[in-house]
Each structure stands twice: as C-alpha cells, then as structure tokens.
Amino acid sequence: LFSKKKPNHEQLKILLQYLDIFGLGKIRIVSISHASKEATFEIKNCAVCLMKKKLFSQNATASNAFVEGVCRGIAELLFDEPMQAKKTQCVTRNKDSCFVKTSKILEKSQDPILDGFTEKSFSVADKRRLDNTQADLIKKVSGHYMIDWNEGMFTLWGCSLFMMPSLSFVYLIKTLEERSLDWTHTLLYHLARVQSRESVLFQLQKMGFKKDITLLKSILEHSDITGFGSVKLVHADFEKKMLSVEQYFNPYSYYTNQLF
After folding, report:
1. Residue pair 91/49 in contact by the 8 Å Cβ criterion
2. Distance of alpha carbon 147 from alpha carbon 155, whole angstroms
C-alpha cells in the first residue's frame, strides 16, 4: 500500500478504512506529535473487547494486544521508529471506546520466533485468485445480508468476527506450539469443535435446514468463505454416523511449509 516513504494523509485514511473492513473496530488517530513521536488512537466497536466484556464482565482484562499491535504498526509507519503501544482506556471498563497511546521504544524483542516475523514474511503469500464458484458464493451470502460491515464491525450470520492474515495465524500457532504443543492443539481442537457445532445449530434453527446432505454441503461452503481452505464431501452415511471429507487446500499447512 505504501512506498518506503512515510505515508501521507490520504494513504493513512486508506489504511484505516481497510482496518474497518477487517472487523478490528473503527480506528481513528486522535493526535500526533512529531516532536515527541507520540500518537493516540481511538478504537470504537472493538469486537474483541466488546465480547470480552459480554463474556467475562468485570473479570475481563482491560487490554487487547492485537489492536495495540496494530496501532504500534501504524505508529512505526508514521515515525519510522521502533514504537511501543499501551491501552489507556477500554470498553471493558464501561467506556464508550478504547484508546491506545504509542511512544518511542529503545528495547527490542528477543524472541527468535517473533523476530523472524517481518514484512519479508509476506513475500511467500499465495497469489491465487478466487474462481467463479467462490466469487459467486460470496456474492450470494452478502446479497442475503449474511455478511455485514458497519462502523468497524464485521459480522457473519450475526456473529461478530475479525480477519487475520493466514501468515499471522501461522506464526501465532507456531509460537504457542513452541511453548506447549499439547496444550495448543487441545485449545484449537476445542475451539474449532464448539465453533462448528454453533454454525450447524444456527443453520438448523435460523435457516430451516434439516440434518441431511444439503446441510453438510452448506457447512463445507463456509470453509471457503472463512478462509480455512477448500473442502469437499467424499462420503456420508447417516445410518452409520460416518463422514469423510477431503481438504484439497489448507492455508495453514501451505504457509507452515513455506515458512518453516
């Protein structure tokens, strides 16, 4: 998006509009001081913080490291300096929006895994384009208001979410696996199991599907929409309660092989 020069005002506006689409919240720069190299960001409708407040109430931590990292990245583009970011206000504490302040930092991360994740990592990004079937599917679900963007909030079938590049997800999982392989796999397995069950229940209760082959095909289509790869049904036996699917493109496996 940017040249190697510092982004100008118009380029910065474009960047923040992209972040709106990703579902990270509506981010705006409140103040910039080039003298002290500090910047303050306001984030409205931060999906993660709003969900933390809803799920954990007063036990929710008043931080969101991912959004803080986003603000730090923007500040480093602005000032061309290593920066640090800290949340100074959060909706989990009954505020209307979150605020993050960035400032210069002299220390550097010593984590070899995270230090290996730089803008150069994105050079391995897959360049394939959507085929007509996938493009038509996205048009269909967006046309039925199943996908919606509003003031920094991104929802799919009424569920708020945010998008993350597959490369970032791979580095996240790799780092967690370095800390605890079994714990990471158990966590991901449980999260995916609950998420897929909720997706099926939604279609059964809200969209009138029955437990048949049509439901299975609809669920597998979701994998294309959400970026978890392309999956096709190989065999289904409802009497024996057996199911076989083939995933012929998996972004996680692809980027893991490319990077590690």
Report:
1. yes
2. 6
